[in-house]
Design goal:
The structure holds three protein chains of three kinds. By secondary structure, chain A is α/β, with parallel strands linked by helices. Helix content of chain A is 26%, strand content 27%. In chain A, helix 4 links the parallel strand 4 (109-117) and strand 5 (138-146). Chain B is of the alpha/beta class. Classes of the chains: A alpha/beta, B alpha/beta, C alpha/beta. Chains in contact: A-C, B-C.
């Protein structure tokens, strides 16, 4: 049995290529530093799975601007699986690890990082998860793509690209840290027709 | 000797007698009046014709081991419902086990059961008498009184409980010689089976159910055949379930010991692997054993080491099975599936032909129970206790449609071969077209001393 | 996975997934706020037909940490002791919309019966049935062993199995549901299992188990096990002539101070001593052994909550019609025999 390669489908188009992603992240990194007036108390928490490598990349870019920053010490992962409101609608998902930076999140400026902002439900779950872990001074949200169709009163502070989409389409982010397509690591954002 | 008149004549056309050539049979006045070419000629104009093309004619099956539950547990089964099930299953005689409530340990109880059977009229009901008072294994019941009662009891058994006291067993074996009786032993060493739930072996080890070792059965059989030899009595071993038991019985027969043995249909087909479901429908005494035991039992039945098939039909109300394994009652229904299971396991495997089938389900059980008019050849002048079987039929077992009150069939959902199309009890059709017809009405003189079954 | 009834029908994939989820649950247990909202609004019934405070509170803590509502139904003093059947009890719980039933029962197979009966639609978790199985105990033992084994190798525990590990289980295997569940699970996870005990307390049929059997504990220790799991001995077994006296049992099968020293002599520095509890100190295990740094007894208790959280989460959190899991349900070691005859029905 052969599985047809997903990316060979006729209804796929690339909306952000590798260079576009990199440029967007550079801009977001600068925005974060500007909004925070520096790197003080910054913590970047990626939401699995693709939010985490994005948070790592942002931390690298912040460290490139501010050499006093150790990117590993300001980056963490926040799993929201068990806070989702749609657990019952899907086969059971295994939770992934939550890892906070050694400094914790109390009184920090936490930037939640995710790949796509859509209904806002994941971010809602992330805010609940965060509340169980500590009390940050401020929580901000950075996303690579905002595709609209919000179902909750949630907005992003930093957006790589606003993408008007139809709900029939799905937006896929592929990151080299996670995604191997045809044997090679790729960085791209694509829009596909939902089957 | 009186003959209750059965008004209907039946002309059975083209039945394969014991699986051999097709012949016509005329059934009239309780007997097979004619066989072959003479049958059509002798039939009266109003004779009912039964088209038996493709059907096998066999002597009516005789069960040495049936639990009819009445008196005492009429919620589980009655003589009426149990004997309906028997007729549908192709039986013309069943032996009702003694573990009723009160126990069939007096002439009064056995006579009651006997008369209930006569009143029902679907099948000949022969009570089995208890060996010991209340099945308690302490002192002998009044075996002679039961033998002399209108029920003419010849088979005695504490079935469900082993007569484990060797002295008591010896005395019982000796005592019944006076009236040509037989002790049917439930071979189960009680100390080795305290709390036992299933065959002890690989499966019990995994399931954590207390094991029921084969040796608990085999050690009692070994003792009993030696006792039977010593006192020169005949012994019948109920529901043999292990390969080891077969070996002991084979050895005993080779030594000329007068022992007969029985196997149930379920022990010819099912194994303890089924217990993995923990479904108590598979809980039975003796327990389901291994595939090797099943193979040995089939071979023993084929070579005559095991003489008969006995159903051990044991209906239970559903609440006794809809519970945890350990709490559940032991036993399975069997009257309505026996023929099909034996055809499936013995005939279709080539181990027995239909003549052999008749031997183990009718001829030999009738001889052991001393029922002179059952298990007879299909010949002119013989009592018309017979059954017509469609060996090509296939059916799926559905306990909810059965005549027995018990729903505890371990064969449910299984597709089996062979169906009973007609059963004739002393010339009267109790089953026709695979359905219950009418009971044989008790003859007016049934109340008298002469048993109505004497033909 | 719809029910957790035994470890024998637990695939390696499902077992590892459960252990990995348990690692995440354990991490939650180290937080200040130990509660997760995953099972909010779900009802877990602890149906205990046998006293077991330890197991019950472990399940209760697990369910509560996942925000489930917990109803404790102890059969003693309830309608069950007045003769109500398992069926009626189950139907009562169904009418109360129980989402999961955690059942402890003295009869082997009672949880399987409950799950297969159709009396109740809830997920059934076996919390110990007769002398059959105690799957969550084996899972917490495996969890404890895996952490230890990964630690020895200097690796992280998630994702790893027990390949290469040698586990010795000692004592009354015949009556032990803990032993049965561990034999299947640990071998599924790649460990080698050794059994040691008096022949009277090893089941007939143990020869078919994927284990090596020893009648002499010191011979078994000479095989250099990485873990020694001592089983609880019920003193009343002596009355049924399983062994002559408690003293003799303790001498031959107890993990006493001499055997504790023997581990050092053999250079088994990384060998741990396990016990499912409650312990008979001085009988199957000496106080020195139970309290030694080798002992994992308290870690086992702690890990029990994490493992039970993982079990409840995996059974209850997702869509109940999880097809993928059902396909994986059958055990890896069972062959895919195309035989059409149902098991146990001889052709």
């Amino acid at each position: 049995m052969t599985v047809p390669a997903q990316e060979s489908g006729p209804h796929k188009r690339v909306v952000l290529a590798e260079a576009d992603i990199d440029r967007a992240l550079t801009r977001i990194a600068h925005e974060i530093l500007e909004a925070n007036k520096g790197s003080r108390d910054l913590v970047l928490l990626g939401i699995p799975r693709r939010g985490f490598p994005l948070a790592q990349r942002l931390a690298q870019k912040i460290a490139a601007v501010d050499p006093t920053v150790d990117p590993d010490l300001i980056t963490g992962q926040l799993d929201v699986t068990m806070y989702r409101d749609d657990l019952r609608r899907h086969p059971t998902r295994s939770p992934l690890a939550t890892q906070l930076p050694p400094s914790g999140i109390d009184d920090k400026v936490v930037v939640l990082v995710d790949d796509v902002l859509y209904s806002g439900r994941t971010v809602r779950a992330a805010l609940d998860a965060l509340a169980d872990l500590g009390r940050p001074r401020t929580v901000r949200l950075a996303v690579l793509v905002d595709r609209g169709h919000r179902e909750l009163p949630i907005r992003a502070d930093h957006v790589g690209k606003n993408l008007p989409t139809s709900s029939r389409e799905s937006v896929r982010v592929h990151l080299a840290e996670i995604d191997l397509i045809g044997g090679s690591a790729v960085n791209e954002v694509v829009i596909e027709d939902r089957v | 000797m009186t003959t209750p008149s059965t008004p209907t004549q039946y002309l059975i056309r083209g039945a394969s007698l014991l699986g051999q050539g097709a012949e016509d049979l005329l059934v009239r006045d309780g007997v097979v009046a004619a066989v072959g070419g003479a049958a059509v000629g002798e039939a009266s104009a109003d004779a009912v014709t039964v088209d038996a093309a493709g059907l096998v004619a066999l002597p009516g099956m005789v069960d040495l081991h049936t639990h009819l539950r009445e008196p005492g547990r009429e919620d589980a089964e009655t003589v009426e419902t149990g004997s309906r099930a028997a007729a549908l299953g192709g039986f013309t005689a069943v032996h009702a086990m003694a573990n009723s409530s009160p126990v069939a340990d007096t002439a009064g109880v056995v006579e009651q059961v006997y008369r209930l059977g006569l009143a029902s009229g679907w099948v000949e009901v022969r009570p089995v008498g208890a060996v010991t008072v209340g099945l308690r294994g302490e002192r002998l019941a009044e075996l002679g009184a039961m033998a002399e009662s209108p029920a003419s009891v010849r088979v005695f058994s504490d079935d469900g409980i082993c007569v484990s006291d060797p002295v008591l067993m010896r005395r019982a074996l000796e005592y019944v010689k006076a009236f040509d009786g037989v002790i049917a032993q439930h071979a189960q060493e009680p100390r080795l089976t305290e709390g036992a739930q299933m065959n002890e072996g690989d499966v019990s080890a995994v399931l954590g159910l207390t094991g029921w070792p084969a040796v608990a059965e085999e050690s009692i059989i070994a003792r009993d055949v030696l006792l039977a030899q010593h006192v020169g009595s005949r012994l019948h071993v109920c529901h043999v379930s292990t390969a080891g038991s077969v070996e002991i019985i084979r050895w005993a027969k080779a030594r000329g010991i007068d022992v007969t043995a029985e196997v149930t249909p379920h022990h010819l087909l099912l194994t303890d692997e089924l217990v993995r479901s923990y479904d108590p429908v598979y809980k039975v005494n003796p327990p389901l054993r291994t595939a090797d035991d099943v193979t040995a039992l089939r071979e023993a039945l084929a070579d005559g080491t095991i003489d008969v098939v006995g159903t051990d039909h044991a209906p239970h109300p559903s609440e006794h099975k809809e519970c945890e394994w350990a709490q559940a009652a032991m036993g399975m229904t069997g009257l309505e599936t026996a023929l099909s299971v034996v055809q499936h396991t013995m005939v279709e495997t080539g181990l027995l032909d239909w003549e052999g089938f008749a031997r183990v389900t009718s001829v030999t059980p009738a001889r052991i129970g001393r029922l002179a008019h059952q298990g007879r050849p299909l010949a002119a002048g013989e009592p018309a206790n017979l059954v017509l079987v469609d060996p090509a039929a296939r059916w799926t077992v559905d306990p909810s449609t059965m005549a027995t009150k018990g729903r505890n069939s371990p064969f449910r959902g299984l597709e089996l071969p062979g169906s009973v199309r007609a059963t004739f009890l002393a010339g009267h059709a109790t089953v026709l077209d695979g359905r219950l017809a009418t009971p044989r009405t008790a003859a007016p003189e049934a109340g008298r001393e002469a048993p109505a079954w004497s033909i | 996975m719809k029910h957790l009834l035994s470890t024998q029908d637990l695939s390696a994939g499902n077992a590892l997934r459960l252990l990995d989820v348990a690692e995440e649950m354990a991490a939650v247990g180290e937080r200040e706020i130990k509660k997760l909202p995953a099972l909010r609004g779900r009802t877990v019934v602890n149906l205990f037909f046998e006293d077991s405070t330890r197991t019950r509170i472990s399940f209760e803590a697990a369910a509560k940490r996942l925000s489930a509502d917990v109803i404790n139904f102890a059969a003693k003093g309830s309608s069950v002791s007045k003769g109500e059947s398992l069926k009626d009890t189950a139907q009562t719980l169904e009418a109360m919309s129980a989402d999961a039933v955690v059942i402890r029962h003295p009869a082997s197979g009672a949880p399987a019966r409950l799950a297969a009966s159709g009396w109740i639609d809830a997920a059934v978790v076996n919390a110990g049935d007769g002398t059959h199985e105690h799957p969550t105990q084996a899972l917490l033992d495996a969890f404890t062993l895996r952490r230890h084994w990964a630690g020895v190798a200097g690796a992280a525990s998630p994702g790893t199995d027990l390949t290469g590990m040698k586990v010795l289980i000692v004592g009354d295997v015949l009556h032990s549901r803990v032993a049965r569940s561990n034999v299947w699970l640990l071998t599924t996870l790649g460990a080698e299992v050794l059994l040691a005990g008096p022949p009277t307390l090893l089941p007939v049929g143990v020869g078919a188990w994927p284990c090596t059997v020893f009648y002499d504990l010191d011979d078994a220790l000479a095989e250099r096990p990485d873990a020694v799991m001592m089983l609880r001995l019920q003193a009343e077994r002596m009355n049924a002539a399983f062994f002559p006296s408690l003293r003799e049992y303790s001498r031959r099968w107890g993990f006493d101070d001499g055997r504790l020293a023997l581990l050092d002599t053999l250079g088994l520095d990384d060998t741990v001593i396990m016990h499912p509890g409650p312990m008979n100190r001085g009988l199957e295990i000496s106080s020195a052994a139970a309290d030694s740094p080798r002992s994992t007894v308290l870690a086992q208790v702690r890990n029990g909550v994490s493992v039970r959280m993982a079990a409840l989460y995996l059974l209850l959190a997702g869509d109940p019609h999880d097809e993928q899991d059902q396909q994986r349900h059958r055990h890896d070691r069972q062959s895919d025999d195309p035989d059409l005859i149902p098991e146990g029905r001889t052709p």
